[in-house]
User: Fold this.
Amino acid sequence: MDTDLDSLATAFYVVIDDILKSHPEHLPYRPRIGISPKISDAELITLALMQGLQGFVSEARWLRYATEQHRNLFPYLPGQSGYNKRLRKLGQCMKWLIGVLAQRTDVGCDDVWLVDSTPVECARSRETVKRSGLAGWAEYGYCASHSRYFWGLRLHLVCTVHGLPVGFALTGAKADERQTLLDILSDDEVMNRVQADGHRQVLIGDKNYFGREFERILDESGIELLHPARVGEAPRAGARFFKPLRQIIESVNQTLKAQLDLERHGGRVPSGVAARVVQRLLALTAAIWHNESLGLAVRRSLVAYDH
Assistant:
């Protein structure tokens, strides 16, 4: 295999096509009698993966481009409306595939995880906020890292030191980060990845992940939480490692925003935003999986796939 988009898309399609045939319960329900789709679910997910990697935020523009440039991979391409509807229905399936692909990598079993949240802006003007279909989920919040207020959501991400997503959640901008983390870790697929051989999982977060009861719950789950000391606290063990390791997840968030256009998702309703965010996380996971299979030292590199 080569480090190019066609090779990644081909390898990805071959793998997920077999996976989805073995686990049809994760696909949207489709009656046996009726019109059969001209493009399979595996092909559509591969098409969405390529869109995310190539930075097309407009689905209409992407489908026009794919018609001209990727006809060798897709004999049939849907219209923009059909593509959008099917992509939203496949949101949960793509989320499941992220975990399946991650388990097929060597770095997926790292014993050090990182956690952080980052803004996913959904609107800027007051008029847009008033008529947005995201009202009630999206809300006003403050990003201390960039010293700015925003209206939208937060992506809470748990990942390995190589940037491989382990678990994630989309919440309102003011959601409690600690409770959201506990919700992520309560997922059976995430907890199954906590090593069962008696070795404790290390989780590194920022100062917002604190509290005796919070740390006790994590400790009982086999997770050791490390975070910088807050004001008035005694210095914590391993403090010298926090800054370089914390920088990794900041870099992962930057990859999602700068290369995968996380905040230019274009979603107008909850299902649309969720599908587009999962689409970008799946693209990141697939790139790491493919780079590892090629034996590349830098696994979270998307440069070869974005053109």
